[in-house]
Amino acid sequence: MRPVIALVGRPNVGKSTLFNRLTRTRDALVANYPGLTRDRQYGVLRHHGDSAIVIDTGGMGEETDGPGAAMHEQAGAAIAEADTVILIVDGQTGVSSGDEEIVAQLRGRGCAVHVAVNKSEGLDKNLVCADFHSLGIAAVHAISALRGRGVDDLIDAVFRDVYARRSQPHKAPEQAGVNGLDEGVDDQVAAPRGAVSVAVVGRPNVGKSTLINRLLGEERVVVYDQPGTTRDSITIPFECAGQLYHLIDTAGVRRRARVDEQVEKLSVIKSLEAIDRANVVLLVSDAREGITEQDAHLAGHVLEAGRALVLVINKWDGLEPDQRLKVKRDLDRRFAFLEFARRHFVSALHGSGVGLLLESVDLAYAAANRDLPTPELNEALHKAIAGHQPPLSRGRRIKPRYAHQGGHNPPRIVIHGNQVQRLPAAYGRYLERFFREEFQLQGTPVRIEYRASD
Ligand code: GDP
Ligand code: GDP
In this structure, are 74 and 149 located in the same domain? Predict the structure, then answer.
């Protein structure tokens, strides 16, 4: 399971600057998919082949300055879920009573704490750290979230610490992928052979449990139950039409022991874990509530993880035609970046539409794992170029020359040629749509990567 790192600190110390730096793999996607926004609270950090979930507690609740308000309730709940807290302090102002207060609140919580002395660019590393040793925390690192100074070392130390406490070997740097979207995504999915792992994710109360119970309806054989921990989701294996599925249940259908409200809010962490483990994600939203910001963030996480996706718009029963129209408009607007995913309008309560979901899951799974033979890929590339010439860059035509498949799940298509890295995002989207049609890649994100040969 991935470590969870919470960023805490007084307002304005640089939490969100650090958060953005740590989770910036999203930036490339944001540029590629208009309408996709960052989740300002939860992100995934990728670091030399390791990954962790990062929570910016500054984005939680209201920013309050007064004493006692240094750490609000939600931040407290985030910390309860965290393996490691990075306490960010301001190196330019020195230790403040607010910092001390936060340290007092962190005491006895059993998570590792690292102090990151931020805004330390241009300051003497040792001197600036010395000041903060008075907080009584051993691990003190000088960083500049803005410039990036010291951030790598900080994260190295955090991972080393996490793995030491779990007594697992820390991945050697030579095993590491690059910090970016093109690292080997293939082997991130630990799906049991033959079974399709399906994560059911969505905000609380959208109907996930109801849907899972429907999916597990009589004709399907539930193979066995597994115990789970708080953060862990339970996997429910079942069979349908000869295919084995592992349903990753973030809703706690099989364990409705009343989780307290704060843990419920942190179901985002659970969802991120489930998305990571899944082959296909069923993202459930509530037609009565419309498509919310939180739905869009979850969808963004699915896209970022490169998972195959099926959209489930639940509670479709009893809606007026104008309400239905509004939901569809909402979907077009908020989920514009998910045009590859099939949409199902269902009623988990009454069962209507639910029977078709697994078919879409199968299609999306097949698409995500499809082999794209090089000759056909090149034929498609040249057809795409003939249909729509790439623009000029620095007075020369950008010339994609050939393509090959770089990986599966999601399919990665690597395009080589002159200046291909300068292809505008819109042209990349055109290519993506073209390949998607050509190879029936419905239901899965497709990554286009460029290798310049000049
Ligand atoms: P938060 O309230 O803790 O999330 O703080 P922000 O990330 O919003 O940062 C507050 C201010 O500090 C912003 O103006 C940032 O640009 C600035 N800041 C953040 N990191 C650094 C840094 O490393 N050096 C300097 N000089 N300023 C920084
Ligand atoms: P979860 O928190 O996402 O697991 O949501 P639940 O499955 O517990 O459902 C939350 C509430 O929505 C319950 O009261 C359900 O009965 C109700 N609900 C679930 N699906 C539907 C549906 O398709 N139509 C309607 N009208 N209500 C539903």
Answer: yes
Same domain, 378 and 365: no
Q: Looking at the structure, do residues 203 and 347 belong to the same domain, yes or no?
A: yes
Residue 132 lies in a domain: yes
355 is in an annotated binding site: no
Is 191 within a domain? Answer: no
358 and 389 together in one domain: no
Ligand 1 center–CA 11 separation, angstroms:
9
Residues 444 and 380 placed together within one structural domain of the fold: yes
Does 146 sit in the ligand 1 pocket, CB within 6 Å?
Answer: yes
Q: Is residue 187 part of a domain?
A: no
Q: What is the pLDDT of residue 177?
A: 38
Whether the CB of 204 sits within 6 Å of ligand 2:
yes
pLDDT value of position 73? 67
Q: What is the 3-state secondary structure (H, E, C) of the chain?
A: CCCEEEEECCCCCCHHHHHHHHCCHHHHHHHHCCCCCCCCCEEEEEECCEEEEEEEHHHCCCCCCCCCCCCCHHHHHHHHHCCEEEEEEECCCCCCHHHHHHHHHHCCCCCEEEEEEECCCCCCHHHHHHHHHHHCCCCEEECCCCCCCCHHHHHHHHHHHHHHHHCCCCCCHHHCCCCCCCCCCHHHCCCCCCEEEEEEECCCCCCHHHHHHHHCCCCCEECCCCCCCCCCCEEEEEEECCEEEEEEECCCCCCCCCCCHHHHHCHHHHHHHHHHHCCEEEEEEECCCCCCHHHHHHHHHHHHHCCEEEEEEECCCCCCHHHHHHHHHHHHHHCHHHCCCEEEECCCCCCCCHHHHHHHHHHHHHHHCCCCCHHHHHHHHHHHHHHCCCCEECCEECEEEEEEEEECCCCEEEEEEECHHHCCHHHHHHHHHHHHHHCCCCCCCCEEEEEECC
Closest ligand 1 atom to residue 143 Cα is 23
pLDDT higher than 90, residue 217:
no
Same domain, 390 and 348: no
CATH number at residue 432: 3.30.300.20
206 C-beta closer than 6 A to ligand 2:
yes
Residue pLDDT, tens place only, 408-451: 999 999 999 988 888 888 899 999 999 999 999 999 999 999 99
- pTM beyond 0.95: the answer is no
CATH number for the domain harbouring residue 161? 3.40.50.300
Residues 351 and 382 in one domain: no
Question: What is the reported pLDDT for 62?
Answer: 46
- CB of 21 within 6 A of ligand 1: the answer is no
Distance 260 CA to ligand 2 centre (A): 19
Last residue of one domain, picked from the residues 146, 167, 188: 167
Instruction: Kindly provide the ipTM of the predicted complex, given to two decimals.
Output: 0.86
Q: Which atom of ligand 2 is nearest to the CA of 314?
A: 23
Query: What is the domain range of residue 21?
Result: 4-167
Reported as a pLDDT band with limits 50, 70 and 90, residue 270 is confident
pLDDT of residue 137: 92
For residue 347, which atom of ligand 2 is closest to its CA?
A: 23
